[in-house]
Every structure is written in C-alpha cells, then in structure tokens.
Amino acid sequence: MTDSNLYLTMKGTNEGIIVYLDDQCAFSTLLNELKEKVQSDTVNDRTDITIHCQHRYLKDWQLDEIRKVVEEDSSLKIKSIESNVLSHQEALTWFDETTVKTFIKTIRSGQILRVDGDALIIGDVNPGATVIATGNVFVLGQLKGIAHAGSDEQANSVVVASYMNPNQIRIANKISRAPDYEVEGSEREFAYINEITGQIELDDIHNLQKIRPNLTDIVERGL
C-alpha cells in the first residue's frame, strides 16, 4: 500500500509503515503536511511507524518537532527516525572503523598496538608483543606474539600472517593458545572462528575467500 501527498509518502511494508519525507522542501512546510496527514489518518491499528528523512539532515530540535507532531496529534507511534545522511561524527567513526591502519614496523616485546578497524603490520610481531584490533589483523611478517582480532565482539574477523607461530590468538571472545612444547610455524595462514565448532581454527590463506566470502576485497580496502 502506498499513500502519497505532496511532500510525504506513506508505504505499508511487512515491517510496518514507513513515512518518507521530502528532502527538498522547507522544514516548516514538511511539518505542516505531516501534521495534517497524521490528524486525518483514521486507521487506528497502525500504531508503529518509521520516519525516513531520505537525504535531509535534521538537527535534534527538528527531530523533536517531528516526534511531537506525530505522537501528540495522532494514535501513531514513531519506532525510529532514519535517513541516508551521516553526521560529521558518524562519518568520522565509520571511516575510522572501515579504513585499514598500516604500520611499517616491528612490534616488539612489551608493546601493545590498539587499532580501531583493521590493522596491517608490515613487519614482525615479536614474542611478548600484542596487536588488538576491532576488525581484522593482517601481519606481513612473522606473527610470534599475541593477535586479538574482533576485539569488540566481531566474531567474523580473521588473523592473517605471512608466517604464523603466535603465542596466542584471540578472535572476539575466543582464545587459542600455543602448545606448551616447541612447534614450527607455518607460512601464509589465517585464523578464524569455525561457525560449526565455535572454535578458532587455522587454514591456508588461499581458502580465505571461501571461508569468509563477505570479507571486503583487501585491495579495495587499501592494503
């Protein structure tokens, strides 16, 4: 079902009613039409609606005005107010979380490197050193220390290393420790959480795309 006025469109979906607001007209004009619409709406069982502002950025006082018009002048209740626009802070946060941070150095024993988003270390992570990232950890060198990927509970994160022989690997809340006895490392491997076993496992880097098909292409992300 679609119900259109000059500056707003109401659509019925499986998830409820979505009201699309025009993003070109004056806010006062939009507010007046929204008020007229909700007051004339006689369908009382449609209590939850989503307001979508499209490409219009609304300040807090404007959001408050919309809530006031809808919830005080009708039986409707706003479930959420959405838009296609990011605030400046939201844009900075999104950029920070989706940009690969590159470090051309060796992470030495006792050092802790913390990264928001993906971490790319071009160098070694020595025994006793720690790399913690909210996203993935890529080591173009020897991983002999501790790597913690998905530190904010992103269980689909991975740890990739040119040479894998870590003291410990953590992904989200899972931990995989090195054995007590001496073992040789292996080249070009990655660690991930197996969705079936729920445990951290290692695999050849050639299988990375097959096991994590939703992982954004490394070249496109700037590695």
Rg, Cα atoms, Å: 25 Å
How many domains? The number is 2
Number of helical elements: 4
User: Ends: how far apart?
Assistant: 46 Å
Top CATH class of the largest domain:
Mainly Beta
Q: How many E strands?
A: 16
CATH architecture of the largest domain: 3 Solenoid
Tell me the structural class.
alpha/beta
Largest sheet: 6 strands, mixed
Beta-strand portion reads 35-45%
Helical amount: 10-25%
Mean pLDDT figure: 83
What is the H-and-E element order? EEEHEHEHEEEEEEEEEEEH
Specify the overall morphology.
Answer: elongated
Placed side by side, the strands forming the largest sheet appear as: 6-8-10-12-15-16
Uncertain runs: none
CATH fold category name of the largest domain: Pectate Lyase C-like
Domain Septum site-determining protein MinC N-terminal: 9-81
Family: Belongs to the MinC family.
InterPro entries: CAP/MinC_C, MinC, MinC_C_sf, MinC_N_1, Septum_form_inhib_MinC_C
Subunit structure: Interacts with MinD and FtsZ.
Key words describing this protein structure:
2 domains, Pectate Lyase C-like, 223 residues, septation, alpha/beta, Transcription Regulator spoIIAA, 4 helices, 6-stranded mixed beta sheet
Any overview of this molecule?
- By secondary structure, the chain is an alpha/beta fold.
- It is 19% helix and 36% strand.
- The chain has two domains: 2-82, Transcription Regulator spoIIAA (2-Layer Sandwich), CATH 3.30.750.24; 93-211, Pectate Lyase C-like (3 Solenoid), CATH 2.160.20.
- It is built from four helices and 16 strands.
- The protein has a six-stranded mixed beta sheet, with helices on one face. Strands 1-2-3-4-5 form a five-stranded mixed beta sheet. A five-stranded mixed beta sheet has the order 7-9-11-13-14, with no helix packed on it.
- The longest helix is centred in the first third of the chain and has 14 residues, at 27-40.
- The radius of gyration is 25 Å and the shape is elongated.
